[in-house]
Amino acid sequence: MALPTPQPSQPRNFFERLLYEVRQEFQGRKRPQPVPPKAPLVQISHQPHFEILPLGSRSGDIDGNLSAYMVRALPLNEAILCDAGTLGGGLKFCEAAGALADIPLPHTPANRAESDAPLSVAGRVLTETIRAYCISHAHLDHVAGLVLTSPDDVPKPIYMLPPTQELISAHLFNNQIWGNMGDKGPAPQIGKYHYQAMETGTGLGVPGTGFTLQAWPLAHANLTSTAFELRHSGHSVLYLGDTAPDQPDSPGALHALWEAVAPRIKNGTLSTILIETTYPNTQPADKLRSHLTPQLLLATLHDLAAVCGGRHALRGLTVIITHVKETFAALPENPQKAIQRELEEGNNMGIRFIMAQQATRYLV
């Protein structure tokens, strides 16, 4: 004897009828796909030549957001990373924020065997987009990410001045703190990274890219820091690592740098500078630790303006502020807001000041 076909239960009251109708209405429909996140975008130039993406933008006591600036030539899949305090974690943060979505990664990943597991977008940017590193100095907030991410990286050059190379060889990639990932220093040398020593002001091309790099020394604490100019297709960006101010009435490393780059600022091919301002003006002078404040930055920018021909010579120049000190202290004003306010109050040169933010894209 055949059993009767079960019938769907019918709604017995108003609320059950309403629920029944809603279910019928949406039955079989596909759930809407989540909208991917869209990272903040600041378009500074109407015809941008570079995208600057901070993988990390701060200094101080809190890791996960330390100095690392990816400079990508538009619209290409080639970039240089200036410092690497935060690297792997910064790339993953940027991927989650949608900041890597516009990078034109090729359909077929490079440097991968068929048996390898597929990489995330962050992993592909690490291994395919970032073609070289420019390391300004060996302080941990500028190199920790490079060290920690190195096992998953691919061979590429590290550009640095000889004093920085010596410190990294002796104290980081030394087979004690970490395996020697470089091609110089203590044996055994894994050789993943080629240490490319630079000479002051001498341009070097980055293999496989259109980038040319120049470096100049900066004074910082008891070591040498570095400023790098990254040039591609006739345009350039200037990145400064940590720096002390020049002494009053005594031209120093910053003045020498300004004299070197002034011709390109005057002809408009260098229109963006990334420079540190670690503390607001309230920081006592004996606790600056060889860093800049807004007052000190404005003073050296006035020196740059004088080298370029006068106060109005920097009108329209973009200065991206890096390395603001993060702290556990409960301060009366957010340090970034305080620094931006103090810069704007003293800005009589027509400079555009921008506070660098992690995972924000700057088109310059």
TrEMBL record:
It comes from the Bacteria. Keywords: cAMP, Hydrolase. GO terms for molecular function: 3',5'-cyclic-AMP phosphodiesterase activity; 3',5'-cyclic-GMP phosphodiesterase activity. Belongs to the cyclic nucleotide phosphodiesterase class-II family. InterPro entries: cAMP-PdiesteraseII_CS, Pdiesterase2, RibonucZ/Hydroxyglut_hydro. Gene3D superfamilies: Ribonuclease Z/Hydroxyacylglutathione hydrolase-like (3.60.15.10). This is 3',5'-cyclic-nucleotide phosphodiesterase. GO terms for biological process: cAMP catabolic process; negative regulation of glucose mediated signaling pathway. The keyword Hydrolase applies. Pfam families: PDEase_II. SUPFAM superfamilies: Metallo-hydrolase/oxidoreductase.
